[in-house]
Structures
1.
Amino acid sequence: MRIEVVTLFPAMVEGALRYGIVSRALARGLLSVGTEDPRTYTTDVHGTVDDRPYGGGPGMVMKPGPLVAAIRAAHARLPQGSPRVYLSAQGEPFTQARARELAQLPGLLLVAGRYEGVDERVIESAIDAELSVGDYVVSGGELPALTVIDALTRLLPGALGDERSSEEDSFTQGLLDWPHYTRPEVFEGRGVPPVLLSGNHADIRRWRLAQAVERTAARRPGMLEALRGQPDVARDVARAVDECRPAGAGADEDRGRKT
Ligand code: SAM
């Protein structure tokens, strides 16, 4: 998959890509990421990319000229038809389902705004979709763009050491993830749930699913309700959902067990 990011801070994006799973995916050629800086397309000596808002008020707005030129240049490097996505607090919520859809694409353009945002005519003429990473405002679209890149990378075949990691991640089966433990067996007086030491994989799977369901019921009850109505849920997941006690009751009961 090829991704292009239009940003006033290319070094911020490139720096963050040097770590962890994304960096490994880049090294293996599963992903490539380019950047395009609108400042390259300015014509004045100061390299001006922003201006005061028409109608007055605080803050600055990203000028349309340099931004659209950068979007077109970056888009030309991508496979034809690659969507142009503006990261925006006002966009459609970015979810795991949306990440799965986008991860199927050969190319994706991400546009990071700054200041009060971009001139509306940029969105009208050069953007196909707007995505929000949550109901809060950050100072620029770079961190949201990196969030999208990271979430997509986890879904690219071969990006994770074990493909099951992303299959079991929160939201993938319509549930939150179950709790995880590693050595030591006792940490500051807290033990590991005994079933995880039993070696009985069927019991472990049942326990984990029950934990995932209880956790989802307690923390995101709406997700569980949505799952109940779905026809194509795995049989053991459906059973765990049916067996779930009322929201909150017994959730996370093994967490913090003292030995
Ligand atoms: N005035 C804008 C508003 O209220 O919607 C916020 C502008 S914000 C300070 C600057 C840039 O950060 C935006 O153009 C956008 O690219 C990015 N941004 C801020 N919050 C975001 C969010 N929740 N999701 C995606 N991008 C966001």
Note: The beta strands are 2-6, 32-36, 50-51, 61-62, 84-93, 107-112, 129-132, 186-187, 190-191.
2.
Amino acid sequence: MTAPKTFAVKSFGCQMNVYDGERMAELMAADGLVPAADPAHADLVVLNTCHIRERATEKVYSDIGRLRKDAAKRGAVAPMIAVAGCVAQAEGAEIVRRAKVDVVVGPQAYHNLPALVAKAAAGEAGLDTDMPVDSKFGHLPARRRVGPTAFLTVQEGCDKFCTYCVVPYTRGAEVSRSFAAIVDEAKALVDAGAREITLLGQNVNAWEDEDGRGLDHLIRTLDRIPGLARIRYTTSHPNDMRQGLIDAHRDVESLMPFLHLPVQSGSDRVLKAMNRSHTTDSYLRVIDRVRAARSDIALSGDFIVGFPGETEAEFADTLRLVGAVGYAQAFSFKYSPRPGTPAADMADQIAPDVMDDRLQRLQAALNRDQAAFNAAAVGRTCDVLIERKGKLPGQMLGKSPWLQSVHLIGNHAIGDLVTVELVEAGPNSLTGRMPGRIAA
Ligand code: 5AD
Ligand code: SF4
């Protein structure tokens, strides 16, 4: 196989994968490859995979098959294929054996991607699913050009071992990046065009520096970077919500009033079987403390319906919890058995039609609350960070502090912060108007 000249990265799953995908693209570019004008015709395709739910592995194999079939249809040589991300970590050499891909690289080893690609070009499959002690971050090129909103991984891995979850196996143990490396990368992102940075981690609020200082200290430091207007962070665990971080929501203006705090279930028996190590009550008390610090905070969550053994009454407890919190938005999923996790072998797996029904009812409740949250925002004046052009002439799209999509008519540049009055709300977005204007 000849050395590839063009590349495309296709990321699936979470925001951390989006971040990893960007860093892999930067690595390939630093190695002299250019992004393919048409990703479907790239010499090298990196599939940056997700293993969290559903038939992730099968999907990767069918994607690989499709890439090859499409190339054959065009009479082109099949692209070099690199499988990265959590399926690469979980499946390892099995992917090389079964699909004859050229490169398999895990989430903690992708700094070696250029070397693995060179190896593959020389005719030998490149495989690296190590989780080195010396982290990949020190080997990645500097950030150069990003949009107005950027992700920054500050913490990776998880030690919580919820019984349904593959993350502790695919991403490894909880590791915090160093304070200095994060501050440097944040400054580079701002120099490269970012106005908003979202700090990422599987348990981002467990981030700690060498001296035991927590995420609030990092946020207070980033707040002083000139040009950085907004800071967000995700995903948090209820048990790691320290008072310092809650206080930062009261004190730090650039820290946006939004908190993604997964709860998964409203039943204490299910939470115990999930090994969540919190109860519905301790979760609600955290939320009370957060709201006491920042009364307008928008809350988001993750839910799993149909965990093994979940009864109708236990599901009703989840609906009750949703009613008690009033989420601004949330994600909900049907339980999906993950190979190698304890819950996959539990008795009383729930029938698919029962899961479908519960998911529908949960989503109806969450949608109702999201629409109510949006409706309650009408009349507020807030800043909107412009992210892109809309479909209509003169229309721009951006985000409110509460992470709502806002569209407005105006002559703004991407990356502008515009003060608007929210004048109309739909279930998924709002309309903003410049104060003093009659029409939106
Ligand atoms: N099945 C369904 N949903 C899951 N999640 C994690 N593992 C599973 C699983 N096996 C959901 C959780 C988590 C989110 C990222 O994905 O809600 O918070
Ligand atoms: Fe998975 Fe639980 Fe860790 Fe979240 S806290 S990544 S759900 S094991």
Note: The mean pLDDT is 95.
